[in-house]
Amino acid sequence: MSQATLAALESAPADVACSHCGLPVPAGLVRADTATQFCCDGCHTVYSVIHGAGLERYYRERAEGRRAAPGDKSYAELDDPAFLSTYCRAAGPGLLEVELFLEHLHCPACVWLVEKLGRVVPGVVSARVDLGRSTVRVLWPPGELRLSALARGLASLGYPPHPRQSADTAELRRREDRALLARMAVAGAVFANAMLLAIALYAGAFQGMDADYQLFFRWSSLLVVSPAVAWSAGEFYRGAWAALRTRTPHMDLPVSLGIVAGFVWGAVNVGRGRGEVYFDSVAAVIFLLLVGRWVQQKRQHAAQNAADLLYSLAPSSARVIEDEGTREVPIEAVPEGARLEVRAGESFPADGTLVEGASTVDASLLTGESRPEEVCAGSRVHAGTLNLSGRVVMLAQSTGQATRIGRLLAAIGEAASRRARIALAADRAAGRFVVGALALAALTLLAWWRIDAERAVENAIALLVVTCPCALGLATPLAVSAAIGKAARRGILVKGGEALERLAAPALVVFDKTGTLTEGRLELEGWDGDADLSSLVAAIESRSAHPIARAFVRALPASDLPVEELVQTPGGGVEARVGRVRVAIGSLGFVRARAEVPAPLEARALAAAASGETPVLVATDGSSRALARFVDPVRADARESLAKLVQLGHRVAILSGDHPGVVESVATRLGVALAFAEGGTTPEGKLARIEDLVARGPVVMVGDGVNDAAALARAHVGIAVHGGAEASLAAADVFTTRPGVQPVLELFEGGRRTLGVIRRNMLLSLGYNLVCATLAVAGAIAPWIAAILMPVSSLTVVTSSYRSKTFPEPS
Amino acid sequence: MSALFVVLPLALLLVSGAVFAFLWAARRGQFDDLDTPAVRVLHDDDD
C-alpha cells in the first residue's frame, strides 16, 4: 500500500458510512458525485447486484431486523455439574455429548457454518446439525474444554444456543422412532415375500400343483410371516390389550384379532395339510397399518419437539450485582431480593421492580400491546419482556415458575393436555366399527355351525381377516398427511391432524389484533401542520432506533442536515439543534414542557389518542408547529379475507391486548361488528374468554404472541401467523410462514376439502369391507379374492388422498 | 423344478440379510434425520 493511500485511510472521516456494510469509508474512496459510498469493490458489487435485482428492500429489512447484540453472556450456568448431568451424556472415553437448540438456524449455509465449530472453538470433536429440529449435537472433551466456551463460540457465529430438553427425553423419542421404523421394515420385507409365495400358491390352485411343492410353499409362507406376526404386530397387541383392560373398543382390537386368528388358523391348516391360508393378507394388514402409524408418530414427535423450544427460549441466567461486582448465575439460583443487571436488548430474567435507570420495554410477548412501554425506577417489570433502550437494575421478586410468564406457560401445558382428551373421544367413535365386525363374525360362526362346523370356523376367520380395517385405518392419517404436505408447500405448517378436520366445521374465528390483522408496527398515518419541517424531523429521527423514529424515517424523504446536541428522553421524545433551529419531537407532555402548544393542536392530539392513534408533536424554537399521527396499519388483504371467511359460514371476532380505542378503529376498518371486538384483554383474560367460548361452540384462535399462546392451545384450533413469537408457534396447531390473513383463509378452505377427502376414503374402504364381509358371510370368499381386495382398497385410499387438490397452487 | 427346494431358502436367506442390514442401519441412527444430510452433501470438502 502506498504512503498516499495510507494517509488517506488514516484521515478517513468517521461519518461517511458504506452504503452496503455500514463501515466507515476511507477518505480516499469517498466520491463527491454520488449519494452512495462504498468501502471496497466487494461492497459495491453486492450493492449493484441487490439493486439490479430490485431487492433494495433488503436494506430496510436489515435495519429493522437488527437485534441487540447478545452482549457478553458468559453461559457460565452451563458449567454447573447439575446441568452437565441432566443435559449431557457420555459418548466415548473422556467425551461428552450435548444437544443444544440454536436460534436462527435456517439453511444449508447455516449447517455448513455450525458444523465447522471446531475451527472457532479448538477442542470440539464434532458438531452435527439437525436442520429439521433446529438442534446441534456436539461432542467435546470436558477435561480440556468448558461447555460455556463452546456455547460462546456458537453465539459468536450468530446462533445463540439454548439447553434443550434433558438428554433422556430426546433419547427416548429417538428410540421410539427407530423401533417403529424397524418394525415397519421387517413387516415390509415379510409382506413382499409372502406375496411372492402366495402368487405361486394361487397359480398352483388354478393350474394344478404337486402336493409336495404346495406343502413346501405353505410351510415357507408360515415361516416367512411369523416374524411379522410375532414381532412387528406387537404394537397392535399392546393397544388391543389396553383396550380390553379399559373396556374401550379400539381399532387395535379387530386388527389384532384378525392377525392372530388368520395366522393361527393358517398354521393349523398348514399342519393338517388342507384348508385355506391367509398369510399374505395378514402380512399386508400388518405392513400397511404400520405405515399409517409411522406417518402419525413422525408428525406427533415433530409437534412435541416444537413445544420443547418454548421452554428453551426463556433466559437461563441472570447477572446478579454483588459488592465486588456482577456475577452470572443460573436462573434457578437467583435469590429473592437479588439486584439484577439487565442491559439493553436483553430479556428480563425475573418479575420484580426497577430500582435504577430508565428504559422502554417491549412487553408484546406478554400483553400483546404493540407500543413500547416506558419504565423508570419503581415500575414493575416481568420476566420474558424485552428491555429495549437502556441498562437498568431490578430487584427480583419472583423467578421461574412463579413469574407471570411461568404461570402462563404452565397454563399452556395444561390447556394442551386437556385438548388431548377430546381427541381420545374421536378414537372411541371408531370403536363402533369394531363392535359391528365382531358381532358379524360371531353371527357367521353361529349360522354356519349348524351346517358345517369346519366351514363355520373357516368363514368366521375369513371374515375377521378381510374386514380388518386396513383401508379404514389408513383413510384418515393418509388424507391428513397428504393435505399437510401440500399445505407446507403453500407456506402453511400444520402440526396436528385433527386441526384440519376441525377447521371444516363452521366456527367462531377469534383474531388477535396485533400483527395478525395489522402489520404489527407503527406507520405515519397523517401529518397536520408545516410540511417544511419534514427534513428537520427526518434528519433528527435518522439518529434514533426508537420505533416511532424508524416510522418517521420510512415515511419522510431522507435528509442529511447536520444534527447537533441530540438528547433522547426515554418515555418522552427527542430534542436536538439543526443549524440554528432547536427542535423538540415527542409526546404531548414532553413537548408541552419545552414549547407552547396551541389549544386546537392539543385538542387534535387528544382526539387522535382517543381514536387509537399515537400522536407526536413537533416544536421548533419554543412553538409547536405540527402533529404527526401514527397507527399500526391494517394488512392489505385482511378485509377481503375476513369477508370470505364469513361467506364460508364462520363468525369473526377480535380479542386483543391493545388499547380498546385501537381495537375499535381496526374493527371498523375491517367491517367487524363492534360487539365482536374486545380490547385491553390480559393474557389471563384472553385464556378465560376463550375457555368461556370453547364451552359454547367450536372456536378457532388466530394469534401471534406468547400472550396468545395459552389461548391458542386452549381453543379447538390455534393458528399462529407469520412473524409471531416462537412460543405461540409451539402452542398452535398451525403456523403460517406467509404474512397476512390470506393463508388463514386458504387453511380454512383446505381443511374443508380435506374433510371431504376423509369422508370419501371412509366410504371407499367401508364399501370394500362391505363387499368382503358379504362374501365371507356367504362363505363365498377365497384367499385370493381377499389378497387382491386388500391391497387394492388400500391403494385406492392412497391415490384418493394424494391426488386430491386440498391446497391448490394458485393458477 | 426340484431346484426350488434349494433356491427358495437361499432367497429367504438373502432377504434376511437385507433386513438385518436395514435394522443395523436404523439402530445406528442412519434414519434419524432425513433432511440435513441432503444439504450437507452440497458442501465441498475443501479442508
What does the model show?
The complex is a heterodimer of chains A (811) and B (47). Residues 1-14, 64-71 and 418-426 of chain A have low confidence and may be disordered. Helices cover 53% and strands 16% of the residues of chain A. Chain A is built from 29 helices and 27 strands. By secondary structure, chain A is of the alpha+beta class. In chain A, the strands form 5 sheets. Chain A has a 7-stranded mixed β-sheet with strand order 15-27-26-25-16-23-24, with helices on both faces. In chain A, strands 7-6-8-14-9-12 form a 6-stranded antiparallel β-sheet, with no helix packed on it. A 6-stranded antiparallel β-sheet of chain A has the order 17-22-21-20-19-18. The longest helix of chain A has 46 residues, at 404-449. By secondary structure, chain B is an all-alpha fold. Chain B has helices spanning 4-27, 36-40.
* Count of extended strands of chain B: 0
Q: Return the string of H and E elements of chain B.
A: HH
pLDDT below 50 for ≥5 consecutive residues: which ranges of chain A? 1-14, 64-71, 418-426
Main sheet record of chain A: 7 strands, mixed
Task: Measure the end-to-end span of chain A.
Answer: 58 Å
Q: Looking across the biggest beta sheet of chain A, what order are the strands in?
A: 15-27-26-25-16-23-24
> What does the average pLDDT of chain B come to?
84
Strand-pairing-aware structural class of chain B? mainly alpha
SSE blueprint:
The complex is a heterodimer of chains A (811) and B (47).
Chain A: H1 3-10, H2 41-52, H3 57-65, H4 81-87, E1 88-90, E2 96-102, H5 108-115, H6 117-120, E3 126-130, E4 135-140, H7 147-156, E5 161-163, H8 167-207, H9 211-232, H10 234-246, H11 252-272, H12 279-312, E6 317-322, E7 325-330, E8 339-342, E9 351-356, E10 359-362, H13 364-367, E11 373-375, E12 380-381, E13 386-387, E14 392-398, H14 404-449, H15 453-466, H16 470-489, E15 492-494, H17 497-503, E16 508-511, H18 513-517, E17 523-529, H19 534-541, H20 547-555, E18 563-569, E19 573-578, E20 581-586, H21 588-592, H22 599-610, E21 614-620, E22 623-631, H23 638-647, E23 651-655, H24 660-670, E24 677-678, H25 683-696, E25 699-703, H26 706-714, E26 717-720, H27 726-731, E27 734-736, H28 742-777, H29 783-803
Parallel strand pairs in A: 16-23, 16-25, 23-24, 25-26, 26-27
Antiparallel strand pairs in A: 1-2, 2-4, 2-5, 3-4, 6-7, 6-8, 8-14, 9-12, 9-14, 10-11, 10-13, 15-27, 17-22, 18-19, 19-20, 20-21, 21-22
Helix pairs in contact in A: 8-9, 8-12, 9-11, 9-12, 10-11, 11-12, 11-15, 12-16, 12-29, 14-15, 14-26, 15-28, 16-17, 16-28, 16-29, 17-28, 23-28, 25-26, 28-29
Chain B: H1 4-27, H2 36-40
